[in-house]
Amino acid sequence: MRNFEYYCPTRLVFGEGRIAKLPDLIPSGCRSLMIVFGGGSVRKNGVYEQVKAAIGNIPHTEFWGIEPNPCVETIRRAVEQGKRASVDFVLAVGGGSVIDATKLIVAALCTDMDAWEIVLSKKAEQTKPFGTVLTVPATGSEMNSGAVISRADTKEKFAFSSAHPVFSILDPKVTYSLSSHQVACGLADAFVHVIEQYLTLCGESRVMDRFAEGVLSTVIEIAPSLVKRHDDYDLMCDYMVSATAALNGMIAWGVTQDWATHMIGHEITALSGLTHGASLVIVLPAMMRVLREQKRQKLLQYAERVWNLHVGTEDERIDRAIELTEDFFCSLGLPTRLEDAGIGREIEDEVVRRFRDRSVSFGEGRNVDADCCRVIFDCCRSSRAKK
Amino acid sequence: MRNFEYYCPTRLVFGEGRIAKLPDLIPSGCRSLMIVFGGGSVRKNGVYEQVKAAIGNIPHTEFWGIEPNPCVETIRRAVEQGKRASVDFVLAVGGGSVIDATKLIVAALCTDMDAWEIVLSKKAEQTKPFGTVLTVPATGSEMNSGAVISRADTKEKFAFSSAHPVFSILDPKVTYSLSSHQVACGLADAFVHVIEQYLTLCGESRVMDRFAEGVLSTVIEIAPSLVKRHDDYDLMCDYMVSATAALNGMIAWGVTQDWATHMIGHEITALSGLTHGASLVIVLPAMMRVLREQKRQKLLQYAERVWNLHVGTEDERIDRAIELTEDFFCSLGLPTRLEDAGIGREIEDEVVRRFRDRSVSFGEGRNVDADCCRVIFDCCRSSRAKK
Fold first, then answer.
1. Is there a single domain that holds both residue A267 and residue A138?
2. Domain harbouring A361, CATH code
3. Is the entire prediction scored with pTM above 0.80?
4. A24, A40, A320, B238: most buried, per Cβ within 10 A?
5. Which one of A5, A12, A254 has the shortest CB-CB distance to B11?
6. What are the Fe-containing alcohol dehydrogenase-like C-terminal domain coordinates in residue numbering (chains A, B) (predicted)?
């Protein structure tokens, strides 16, 4: 097991009707609150009314319009508004994009630095405190300090580290109005987050392996019912808990991490606009195929414990586990090939070019570089229908 | 899934050599530190020297002599010493007893209330900040806000709620000098902590069930090697992580909890001095047997997922799972019957009398009262050798 530090001070407030607790959670000294929203779905699902009713007469301003894959251009406007209002607490009401945007807003509120410079600096020096009301289980951003921000004019997308939310409210009923595609992408995102922390080296921690396998097994178990109907409270609870636990650090104690799938996925999204979760399900099966020797032992454990594959040769079990993974994503209605998702060669070329220009290499072996990325693209290009 | 709040702000600093990080972890403004120790084992295993070397010239005072099952009488002396020194940060160096005692010390430092009154009030109003250097993985106290305190003159033992440690340092190498009995009791404690949060109702959370089963499976897997030798770094890592994860709230999100085994175990310890973990392994198998109908569905899940029991009737699988649980504790060298542990009828009678006097009832069904406790004692009285 590797040395590690774990610090996750977010207060998680989970369950039906918990938005009403906002007045107890927002610091009592708060004199100017800014509430950050996305595109307006919260007006339809009742969340907006619940939030407004809960905050009562706490002085506040609203910022609307954080887009999926939040852009620094939009965030700059929120920062201006927040500075004008001398905001001392920010409440993010939305999914991972709204929360990620808020993580940059609270950093930019404390400095004269441009927001994009903060992203490029990799870590915010100082932040205003903030809380969240989560509406889309997927990114885990509600209980970690990370954020991913896009820049529209250059089609770039980078991660940076900010602060943890002071609190996050998770009411499973809020998610009933999500579309099947949103739920599918959220499940895929949670699944791949776990894989990034699991499918690396064997034998680093029995407990972390079990935790990771536990979340994967749960996502696989609940997905078929969940993509059909989103109003099963118990299923939604497990979906929400899976997505949060997948990326709050709890399954990462002392284990080697990967994140190469995310690095490639981010570029695809930045260049094509494809939803984050949808980009990951294309890259992951190819990543497993290309790095099968490096990941052999863990793939075998994954095959056995997550997919219950006990018979056949080692290679047959690995083949089958990768196939079942890809089948699983397809069963969620998500294409697993670039061609099926409408991603053309020009995007592949640009991702490879960027990796080469930046001289980057990712993954637990630091060997997912531009060349390896090209091989991965070769492996997930052709339509699956042509198999 | 039940509504829940989760808040665990302790910074976990894990790994070899991490005690040297103390100067970065103790708040820089600390003007008077008190270090709380147990009986002196830290002088033999090098921890004392590491701590002293790390804190350098931070002004500090030492308090020695916290006993196993820490007594309020000892704690009062520590509080007096701390008040005289105007202590503003406390460092607990030891196992669960030292950490639990420190949780009461930091509360009593903030008030004129007697320490036992704080325990009886169930929750400390205010505390000084504190950190820990853990030397015995068992109670999970290093990452939660709970503590259990004894009173020597009345032989009472009660839990109360204090604050979380600001940080906890877990260096697996520190545990190499533990005795086999200490490791056995620590493993048993961690195991039963998980069971208290798991063996109640079925279907409340798939993720929490998987997490709980993951810790149980790990403890079962590592125990045989671990009780024989304590210098296997990787095994010790998993033992430490299991004990911490067993009681830091991570496996308790939204699930019904039990804790009846602990309530009976605490009384046995208070009256007989039996080590905490050793008391639990006597009560638990009997608890499973007596409440088998109430816990039937979860016992079946436990049998299947933790003990891999897939054949036989339901009752056969439950019988076997309980037997394997008791065998497991015996394999750690811990007696699982009152007679084998030298606990006489007079102690049984006193526990039952106390429960009756206090009109208490425990467990997820609130039905473990004085009468039920008597039935449980009947079930774990006779020596196992007589079976």
1. no
2. 1.20.1090.10
3. yes
4. B238
5. A5
6. 188-351
